[in-house]
Amino acid sequence: MTARAFCGIDWASDHHDIAVVASEGALLARARIGDDAAGLQQLFDLLATHGDTPETPIPVAIETSRGLLVACLRATQRPVYAINPMAAARYRDRHAVARKKSDHLDAMILANILRTDAAAHRPLPADSELVQAIAVLARAQQDAVWDRTQAGNKLRSHLRGYFPGFLAAIKDTRDGLCSPIARTLLAAAPTPEQASKLTLTQLRALIKKAGRKRGIEAEADRLRAVLRAPQMRQLALVEQAMGHQTLALLRQLEAACTSADDLAAASVESFEKHPDAEIITSFPGLGSLTGARVLAEIGDDRSRFADAKSLKAYAGAAPVTRASGKSVAVLARRVKNQRLAAVGYVWAFAALTASPGARGHYDRRRDDADRHTAALRNLFNRMIGCLHHCLTQHVLYDENVAFPDLAQQQRPAAA
Q1: What DSSP string runs through 144-184?
Q2: Rounded Cα gap, residues 264 and 289, in angstroms
Q3: Which of 20, 143, 330, 405 has the maximal Cβ count within 10 Å?
Q4: Do residues 146 and 214 make contact, with C-beta atoms less than 8 angstroms apart?
Q5: CA end-to-end span of the chain, whole Å?
Q6: What residues does 330 pair with on adjacent strands?
Q7: Would you place residue 411 in the very low, low, confident or very high pLDDT band (cuts 50, 70, 90)?
Q8: Is the pLDDT of residue 5 over 70?
Q9: Which residues, at least 6 apart from 245, have a Cβ–Cβ distance to it below 8 Å?
Q10: What is the pLDDT of residue 16?
């Protein structure tokens, strides 16, 4: 890096400490700015004083990749480095043997990290505005799914304590407690006493209200039989109280389900506007929603990953080798983008039924004594390497190119 100055920012919720360091290590300026527009302008004026221009912007190091301050700095097209707080803490010992700590010292340490070791750190990617919006929506949708799962588990645990008959009634229902039928039925009859009094007419009405179109009569008969079957019961007043708690937990589940569905629709809508959407969804096992999650994490700045190996390491698909002397251990990677790794397992699992090549690759790994998770991770490693190639070369997925061994096996023998 040929910059003549480097900036470090120790951020907080209401203020930020700034340090500007020269290329030879001298402290040029320090300041504390507010977390507002006036503070941002003060930062820009300070940087301009020390040689910041649109052609040669001063790079900035900060311990977060999110927030308004980071967004405004990225909008100026300057290099912004998000330094891991644990990494910054290791650098602190180089400047303070007595282990002292202050906001100004932390800002100066961040600036010196860029001055001495910029090559060991990567700037935030120059993703497009559309990809940044997709990232917000896709991550929020994933959070809503996790919230929905948590709310469903809480409700399930509560029902097990006083209404096991309801769990038996919906155990074979797709999506379980999160299904529209389960939520509609539980809202109408949150206790065993109320559920046992539901008539066939009422059950048919509830099933229709939940949106079911077929098999209404048979489902109503089944629910009536299950809900009226003998089961263990709490005392009457206790049962009523637990019914009120059920309604409160159900409202949380309803909100989580609605949020997940709304955010999924918004994520898909934004994702399908992106030019890379066609390439990503050409891969087996990737739909618009999972594709949006993948694009949200890898972005569309193609200079972000130098090669497929870098992307595989970022996704946690590539293993880590630890060698010392004659000892060599190959382990699963723990430090990774957890969101990309999570969607990777979903992608790999879905590809098993959508791609003969993916299925064959998985089966070979299983035959080589890999466990299910390890085989899926290996398949994800293969698929995300193919994705890197397709995105950089602007080509669609080709099964014969991705799995040439399978194509060779399927090729008819010459006469």
Answers
A1: HHHHHHHHHHHHHHHHHTT-HHHHHHHTTSTTGGGSHHHHH
A2: 7
A3: 20
A4: no
A5: 62
A6: 321
A7: low
A8: yes
A9: 158
A10: 92
Is 127 within a domain?
Answer: no
Asked if residue 271 lies in contact with residue 134, where contact means CB atoms within 8 angstroms, the answer is yes
What distance in Å separates the CA atoms of residue 146 and residue 260, rounded to the nearest whole number? 9
Can you give the pLDDT at residue 258? Answer: 95
Q: How confident is the model at residue 98 (pLDDT cuts 50, 70, 90)?
A: low
Question: Which CATH number do you get for residue 44?
Answer: 3.30.420.40
Q: Which residues in 337-349 are b (16+ Cβ under 10 Å) and which e?
A: bebbbbbbebbbb
Task: Name residue, tokens 């079957």.
Answer: 229
DSSP bridge partners of 18: 9, 31
Look up the domain containing 406 and give its range.
Answer: 278-410
Residue 248 and residue 292: Cα distance in Å, rounded? 33
Residues paired with residue 61 on neighbouring β-strands, in sequence order: 8, 81
Asked if the structure places residue 126 within a domain, the reply is: no
**CA distance linking residue 147 with residue 141, whole number of Å:** 10
- Distance (Å) of CA 253 to CA 57, 211, 227, 243, 249: 48, 18, 22, 15, 6
How far apart CA 139 and CA 245 sit, in angstroms, is 30
Number of domains composing the chain: 3
Does residue 252 form part of some domain? yes
Length of the chain: 415
Are 173 and 224 in the same domain?
A: yes
170 and 258 fall within a common domain = yes
Pairwise CA distance, residues 283 & 269, whole Å: 19
